[in-house]
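In the previous lecture we treated proteins in isolation. Real proteins rarely work alone, and many bind small molecules. This record shows how such a complex is specified: first the sequence, then the SMILES for NAP.
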Amino acid sequence: MDLDLTGRRALVTGSSSGIGAGIAAELAAEGALVVVHGRNAERANAVAAKIVAAGGQAAVAIGDLSTNEGAAGVAEQALAAFGGIDILVNNAGGSFDTPDPSFFSVTPENLVATYEANTVAAFRLIQALAPAMKERGWGRVINIATAAAITPTSAQPDYGPAKAAMVNLSLGLSKTLRMTGVTVNCVSPGMIRTEGLMEFLGNFAQKRGWGDDIPKAEEYFVKGTGQTVGRVGEVTDIAYAVVMLASPRADIINGTNFHVDAGISPAIN
Ligand SMILES: NC(=O)c1ccc[n+]([C@@H]2O[C@H](COP(=O)([O-])OP(=O)(O)OC[C@H]3O[C@@H](n4cnc5c(N)ncnc54)[C@H](OP(=O)(O)O)[C@@H]3O)[C@@H](O)[C@H]2O)c1
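The predicted 3D structure, ligand included, written as tokens:
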């Protein structure tokens, strides 16, 4: 199937590593012109260079999305790279500055910081880039949330609620942009094999006295999270979902929260 992404201009925030880097690579492989973003210029440049080496087109935008100024700078660089942005993937984020994620250890400041770097970061770029998509009559906003947005865990009270707000905001935006050709959807990953996850599982295995047995830690979480698919997700699992939603083939998919989580969040709607 031709996904008709050739020449479409995409900004993937937080693509200097992990899931974002995978999304950037797959969009570029489908012919999109991709702006790779992160705070770490070295890593962002390396991701862009890899895309170019594989025959794709990529540019780089650097900046911290947790401030208005930083986000404005990123939007400016992204617009300048290819003359506009048609596809915005708000992937940057995670859970920050929360060394102990247990409910009563997370501080109000942690909560605000996580909200800034996830929800508000996405909001800033949506305000900067979506109006021009509307004017052109076509566009995509794809927000990366998490399974924990609708299936909260007992910890990380900063993270799940911030991502839940992102899901809510996305549905509201899809209504704001009704009949414009711009769709807005979320992708909610479960456990995805990134460096961060591997580090977490490594530490967990050590604490449990399992030494370096990361597969054992993986199995523990696959079972414990109630997954109905027996493996951890790969970065490409998320990237394929995003590429599909980004395509004009997905023109009538709007206002959804797409669970790509190995069955952590079973839902009938
Ligand atoms: N991995 C999982 O299992 C999993 C599961 C569910 C949801 N998610 C979500 O998927 C997304 C990507 O996660 P990941 O695991 O791939 O994380 P990652 O490897 O840590 O990558 C995070 C990316 O976000 C960027 N970033 C973080 N804070 C930023 C800020 N304030 N301003 C600008 N850029 C910022 C980082 O840039 P620099 O490093 O260059 O600063 C990096 O490129 C996140 O939104 C996360 O919540 C991940």
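Summary for your notes: The first strand starts at residue 9 and ends at 12. Residues 108 and 158 are 8 Å apart (CA to CA).
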